[in-house]
Amino acid sequence: MGEAASFRSLLIELFGRLTNGVVCRGAGRRMRWGMLAGVLAGSLLVTNAGRLQAQTDCLGCHDNAEMQDASGHSVAVDGKTFNKSIHGTMKCNDCHQNIKEYPHPAQVAKVDCKGCHADEAQGLAGSVHADSKEHPCTSCHGSAHSIFPKADSRSAVYPLNIPNTCGKCHSNQGMAQKHGLASVYPKYMDSIHGFALSKEGLLVAANCQSCHGSHHILSRKDPASPTNRVNIPKTCGSCHAKINDDYMGGSHGKQMAAGNVKAPVCTDCHTAHEILHPTESAFRMQSTPICGSCHKDKLSTYRDTFHSQLGSLGGYVETARCWDCHGAHEILPASDPKSPVNKANLIKTCGACHAGANASFVQYQPHANAHDRKLNPALYYVRTFMNVLLASVLTFFMIHTLLWLIRARYNQIKEKKTVGGDHE
Amino acid sequence: MSDLEQATVKETKPGGRFFQRFTREQRYMHGVLFTTFLGLAGTGLPLRFSESIWARGLAKGVGGFGAILFFHKFFAVVLSIAFLIHLKEIFTRGILHREKGVFWGPNSMVANWKDAKDLFGHLRWMVGLGERPHFDRYAYWEKFDYWAVFWGMIVIGFSGYAMWFAPFFAHFLPGWALNAALVIHSEEGLLAILFIFSIHFVNTHLRPDSFPMDMVVFTGVESEEEFAHKRPMEYARLKRDGKLEARLGEAPQTWQVHFSRVIGTIAIVIGLTLLVLTLTAYFS
């Protein structure tokens, strides 16, 4: 039992004894008695010290769950919860600073958290959530009287609770449209990070603030934001360190390091919020066009191959996609001896799927262009031959059969027969 | 079968006499051929046009791509076996038993000078410049159908197996041949599909002479009137040699006719549907 409540019952008992030893225990009455006792105690204190000193002074009234102000807003404080919260040891007027004595003015000044939390307030001031009317501290940290440390599972900013806390706004289509943002909460919850967090309860799983930060959240367009594309490898790399090293050693990472902001970063292939496990068919289906959005000629020649034809239909996810041959993070040009598509490594790379691949097998061109006579002459002539064959056979028989049809129908009508149009 | 049904069948086939054109084995062979061909076309087209919406829908419908590829290979193996049985039969009849007329003459599928003359004669007749040629047992377009399938079996089959067992075939084929295999396989497959579902369907089944389908490949027999009309040279030759009666067959049972109609209609409807899908995918 909280200090305040025990103190209150002591007062009730005292008061009861004073009034002929009657102790009232009915719920409704008890509350009234409690209030009366509180008021009495308050006035005693006021008389004695002239100032409000302890939580109990206020909770005497405000612990009543139904207490409302003149305009009908609840002004109740759950003393028990507050007592255990991170601010539980503080006095009420440490925050409600304009209340010095009882009775206090009807208008109570808004609590300003930055009095103590100056750094956080400063961070927030420059962030996307700077508007304190739309984003008061309590919108993330929860009710002011039940704030817990972030390592406490009751906290609204406990790692496992963060997606729900942010999702209160960021799953809202209306708000998403208003600010031109996507409704990211459902996407995140279905992602590999969301699953790790919500299903496995992994505290280390990336939650919103792992990437976006907490108070000083900046738009991804801001160069200082951890979600700005230039900073993404570092942000993801804070957990995925090995992959970040691989990426920085590959062509894409080197381009990015050299200042080419168009070079792909983690989120270009993996997306930001809908990150799937790379072996999942949905991921394998969606990623080839992403590579192809830059490597257009390579996508179009890949499209002509059996790998793509099989792969495009979905379901059969084992067929080679870009990264199965080129690598995923440390992508290197074929001329680099470390590249899996370097000539010296092809038997191993192709052999990963095609058991028994030999030197002749790996001469297969996964990006052959049958339209290019200079690059793939044999293929070009094979295709040309097949096309001529197809066109000539079909053209000849189209004409032949159409003429036949017309003539046969003509005879049929002429001879008024139901069958045997060819009769002469 | 009721008497009434018997009477109806006889009414639609006056003359009463029926002549054997295809043996039971040949009809079964055609059955296996068109069943596996429809299966191969139905599972191959989604691959050829894997970017189109219907291809993905179809693939999903049969259980994803794994299933499509499985069925494609399954039909391919069945058709290959049928082809090998046919080759064995030609070998046994033509080479081991030295049966006359397998490689030449009116009963052979091998093209001859008359076929060339018939083609030009037929074309002349179509534009009203002459008499219609008198066709023998196998007309030139029928021989073309046969050899198209024969050539297709070798070309599509070989390129298909080369892709299926690519690392094995790479022992004796250069790398670019594996690239060529897909081009050949898909182009030849496309040709086969377009040819069968438009030209063969019309030439053999949908033309006014046989509309809506030529039943002879299902029942094995055709009426005397049909025989004399469609293959006058063969009819006249058999009559002259007194061999006509040896070719007499039994009138088809009503259930046979109905069953064949249903099967044939299904095949033609599937074929025409695939043709439309192919054309829409090809031109989009």
What overall geometry of chain B do the principal axes of the alpha carbons give?
Answer: globular
Structural class of chain A: mainly alpha
How many E strands of chain A? Answer: 0
Low-confidence segments of chain B, given as residue ranges, are 1-14
Number of strands of chain B: 3
Strand order of the largest sheet of chain B: 2-1-3
Query: Helical residue percent of chain B?
Result: over 70%
Alpha plus pi helix count of chain A: 22
Going by helix content, strand content and strand pairing, the class of chain B is mainly alpha
User: How many domain units of chain B?
Assistant: 1
Stated plainly, the CATH topology of chain B is called Fumarate Reductase Cytochrome B subunit
Largest interface: A-B, 55 and 59 residues
Fold and architecture overview:
- The complex is a heterodimer of chains A (424) and B (284).
- Mean pLDDT of chain A is 84; it is low at 15-50 and 420-424.
- Among the domains of chain A are: 3-111, no CATH class; 276-368, no CATH class; 373-424, no CATH class.
- With 424 residues, chain A is mostly helical.
- In chain A, 49% of the residues lie in helices and 0% in strands.
- Chain A is built from 22 helices and no strands.
- Chain A has helices at 3-18, 27-48, 55-62, 79-84, 92-95, 118-125, 137-141, 162-170, 173-178, 184-189, 192-198, 208-212, 232-237, 241-249, 251-257, 266-270, 281-292, 296-303, 306-312, 322-326, 346-351, 377-415.
- By secondary structure, chain B is an all-alpha fold.
- Chain B has a single domain, classed as Fumarate Reductase Cytochrome B subunit.
- In chain B, strands 2-1-3 form a three-stranded antiparallel beta sheet.
- Mean pLDDT of chain B is 90; it is low at 1-14.
- Chains A and B meet through α19 and α22 of A and α2, α3, α4, α5 and α6 of B.
